Amino acid sequence: MKDLSPIILFVYNRPNHTSKTLEALKLNTLASQSELFIFSDAAKNSSQIEDVNNVRDIISDVKGFKNVTVYNAEQNKGLATSVINGVTAIINKYEKVIVLEDDLVTSPHFLAYMNSCLESFELNNNIWSISGYSPELEIKNSYKHEVYLAPRGCSWGWATWKDRWATIDWNVEDYQRLKLDIRLRREFNKGGNDLAFMLGDQMAGRIDSWAIRWVYSQFKQSKYTVYPLKSLIMNNGMDFSGTHAPNTDKYTVTLNNYKPNIPTKIDMDSEILKSFRRFYNLNISGFLGVASRRIGIYKTLKKLRKKSKKVI
To answer: What is the pTM assigned to this prediction?
Structure first.
């Protein structure tokens, strides 16, 4: 295997989640040989200062890696700016990155899988990124590989290369074309019909997402993401603790302790694509979430749901 990819971890104000993420990551077979860069965002307001400081205490003395570098922001940037700036800085130096956020628990073979894929698919210009997470899809036993392709990247434990990252249009200069072209939106939504809604919310300023812009650039270039058949990432942040994450069991998976075999050649499987699209298509709750954002009551409803969960 060539030089291992550096790992980037973005943290904010969740000390318990951050500890779990780091403990699981340290158990990876390649952790001690890997460089880790941690980006800590500053508190958005005074109510966040204590939790941010607690996180910074945790990341100030991380062991188990080849080298650990911590960047503590002096002012709050928000997740989107933190990711775009942080990934750009590291990928420009190392040519490739593996990226995590503070609510992701990894399998012990996550790093081995990601590094193997980065090496195997580096020269395959059809591949946009590598995902460590995979939803639990309906996949036929006749499918012969342990990874599959999908036309949509995933921000829960991912990796990519400098030449792909450098092509992203963060301003989405051609959004009006997508907005006015029904056929184009239909093509974009082959990865799930939530995509066009999310990009619309991004462009209207209702959300601040780096990931939907990343996925839209992937779509425009007709590239694919490599997914493991069984997930090597578990997200434990679907508990109202995050700024963006909802409270839902939809994305719950069993964390798998295995290293997928990486094929030398892989093609899109139409049946898997159908299953993938069905998983991400909005249900009634999802459409209500879209509607609530557009009439400006989403944050209020989220606070009420969070409060009701605490009462229960």
So the answer is: 0.91
